[in-house]
Design brief:
about 230 residues, globular, single chain, eight-stranded parallel sheet, binds pyridoxal-5'-phosphate, TIM Barrel, alpha/beta
């Protein structure tokens, strides 16, 4: 992708986000675009930055740390991939949001490290809605108990849920997955757990983001649609 192509992709994606929001009677302002920059070199990321994007997502700590050092300081870095507990310390000071909180041991580590640096880190709980073997995330029936546990921990603020839908050619097939995530969020909300908010649903990727927006997504994580296919 040339930088010119990336700029055009961003324009195009913004229009598609607006159209999807409109179809659902929502405002596009409710939908945050998180540009997924894994494998994308800094000069290409800068093309997106110059278009006004500030929210970028990475799935590997090492790559995120490196790019953060090479790019403007006002970027909001989202951790969207599986996070090893021994890597939390490298991002805890500055990570904007962790989308992939998926187990108690990770929550304990985030809490400990966040407390030590005097931060409260916004986290989304990852749910494996479709129950895929290959994916991380809690089973839907585990979510409420897990969030109750996390709610007791200092340094973590649960702000919503995240899911990665199964890969499919036809995004209509995964509409029930997104709908289910929204229902799980409503269930959590009904529990009124102190300190817990279900403000964000992080769902939708390049192949399925319009359906996700129609089903209530507040954050869509797009890589390929902006930067082209990864190697
Ligand atoms: C890579 C990745 C994305 C973006 O995928 P695309 O299909 O390229 O848009 C979104 N979410 C997560 C968790 C990812 O790892």
């Amino acid at each position: 992708m040339t930088e010119e192509e990336i700029r055009r992709n961003i324009e195009e994606v913004k229009k598609r986000i607006e159209a999807a929001a409109r179809r659902a009677g929502r405002s596009a302002a409710e939908v945050q675009l998180v540009a997924v920059t894994k494998t994308v070199p800094p000069e290409k990321i800068m093309a997106a930055y110059q278009m006004g994007l500030r929210d970028f997502g990475e799935n590997r700590v090492q790559e995120m740390v490196k790019k953060r050092g090479e790019l403007p300081v006002d970027i909001r870095w989202h951790m969207i991939g599986h996070l090893q507990t021994n890597k939390v310390k490298y991002i805890i000071d500055w990570v904007y949001m962790i989308h992939s909180l998926d187990r108690p041991s990770l929550a304990v580590e985030i809490s400990k490290r966040a407390k030590a640096v005097g931060r409260t880190v916004p986290c989304l709980v990852e749910v494996n809605v479709a129950g895929e073997e290959s994916k991380f995330g809690l089973a839907p029936e585990e979510v409420v108990d897990f969030i109750r546990e996390v709610a007791q921990m200092p340094g973590i603020a649960v702000k919503g849920l995240m899911t990665v839908a199964p890969y499919t050619e036809n995004p209509e097939e995964v509409r029930p997955v997104f709908r289910r995530l929204r229902e799980i969020a409503a269930q959590v909300e009904a529990e009124q757990i102190p300190g817990v908010e279900m403000r964000y649903l992080s769902m939708g990727m390049s192949g399925d983001f319009e359906v996700a927006i129609e089903e209530g997504a507040h954050m869509v994580r797009l890589g390929t649609a902006l930067f082209g296919a990864r190697q």
